[in-house]
Structures are given as C-alpha cells and as structure tokens.
Hints:
Blueprint: H1 3-15, H2 20-30, H3 33-40, H4 49-58, H5 66-75, H6 77-86, H7 97-106, E1 111-116, E2 130-133, E3 136-138, E4 144-146, E5 148-150, E6 161-168, H8 177-185, H9 192-207, E7 211-214, H10 221-225, E8 233-239, H11 247-258, E9 263-268, E10 288-292, E11 295-300, E12 306-309
Parallel strand pairs: 1-6, 1-8, 2-4, 5-12, 6-7, 8-9
Antiparallel strand pairs: 2-3, 9-10, 10-11, 11-12
Amino acid sequence: MTTAMVYGEFAAREAHEVSPAYERLSVAVSRSPGLLARLDALPEPKRQPNLLYAAVRFLGGPVAEPGEFLAFTAANWPAIEAEMRTRATQTNEIGRCALLLPVLAALPQPLALLEIGASAGLNLFPDRYSYRYGDHRLGRSGPVLDCDLTGHQPPAALPEVVWRAGLDLNPLDITDPADARWLESLIWPEHEHRRERLRAAARVASADPPLLVRGDLVDDLPALARRAPRDATLVIFHTSVLYQVPAPRRESFLRLVREMPAHLISIENPTVIRYAGLPNPPDETLHNIMALDGRPLAWCRPHGQGLSWFAA
C-alpha cells in the first residue's frame, strides 16, 4: 500500500466522524507530492499518520487547517523528521482498559499484569479506574471509562491486581514534562475528554509507579515474567503494539508466550494477527480484534469506545 493510500484510508476509516481535523489533514497529505516524498524517505513504520501529527503538535505546529499544516511541515521538516525517527506512537490510551476488563475479571484472581509496549504504564491500573458500560457502573475512583458493550455481560467486579510491570523499548516517565507532553500530543485534537482522562490516569500512576523495564519483547520478556509472584495468574497483554514489530519478530514473540505459564490478551488489527473465520465487524470504521490465548473474542474500537463480543 502506498503512503498516499495509507493516509487516504486513515481519513476514511479512522478519522472520519472521530476527528474532523485529522480527516482533513489526511486527505491533504494523500494529495501532497512534496510531503509524501518526505514521508517515503522514512522507514515504513515511521510514516504513519498518528506519528506525523503528534510530532507536529509536539513542536507547536498547526493541525486545524490543511494549508497551514502543509506549510509548517515544509518549513520545519528537519525537526519533524527528527521527532518521527526517535519517537513512537506510544499513545497509552487508558480507554482500552474497558476492553480488557471483561477478560481480566473472568480469570483466576489475583492477577500479575505484564504489558508489552507499556509506554508510561497507564494501562497497568485497570483495577483503579471506573467504568461505564451503558447503564452499568463499576468502580468508585479514578477516571471514568465509557464503553459501548454488546454481546456480553459487563463484569461484576474489578480484578485484583497484586503485581504490575511493563516492557518497552523506550518506556516513558509520566512525571517527566517532555514525556507527558508527548503523550498529550498523541491525543487527537478534538478529544478533550481523552486528555482529561490521561491527566487523571497520570495522577494514579505517579502515586504508585509500576515497574517499567526497557527491553525487547522477545529477549527480555522471560526474565521480567519470572519476577511475577508465583501465586498470581500471570497475564501478558498488548494493545495496538505489534504492528510496529517486524513480522518475524512478532511470530517469535507469539511462539514464546505460548510456551510460558501465562495468559495472553491481544488487541491488534486483524491484518497484524490473522484469524480464520472471523465474523464481519459491526461497521466500516476501524476495528481491532481482542483475543485470549489466541482465541478471538470480540471486535473493539481503537480507543476503547466500543466492544462487540462474538465468541460463545
């Protein structure tokens, strides 16, 4: 798929009716030979829309009007390129905890959580947030995460988490102003509620920082997993991470986890981890697949706003 097609699809399937600003920008980028040429000089994983837009916002650039955006990228490309080459889309969207919760609550308690691609570790606190699945409310503290859940009963209780750790090539420190600003830059312009949730989650994580380890998802996972308490159910999970991992390394990771005494929850695009016989997604917008130990369970929206359960 060409870079122009990537941005065109992002406009149509991800940003449409979710972020008018990013929809406009993506259409403009898909029609800009100059910017497309600059993007094509980057490694393929570094050409993605979210990374470009976050880098521009991190540098104080405009993202509301396509003409101003294209002018800013042309005038400031060396600085933008430097940010895109050194940073990653470590969104740390805590809304995804609402997707994980029905699975986590159903596993044998207590839990030891180990997140792959943990960023600043904000998704390691599903037991300290509150949730709203339609009329069903769960939890009494932290930010409230709304999720449209169909095909499954909402969880009756929060999970009991006794250990939490994250593995990331470049873990972020939520107490560092630059890292916190990068995480805010990754949130789409119109999504003020997500910015408020991020700040609330940052307060939770800052009060009791999780164990965050810099390392590789294959080479360094076994050693970190061995640090989990033996009397807890070890749950390894990742959300919208493996698309940034080369396919051979991705397969090595999945083989490794299958051999470990742990459960694996994955939330990834169905082009990243492929499953046979999937039902059609609920609509034409972008949906990921949530799976437990390789068994697909549900379609889910990227920011945790919807979960459509189809597994028996």
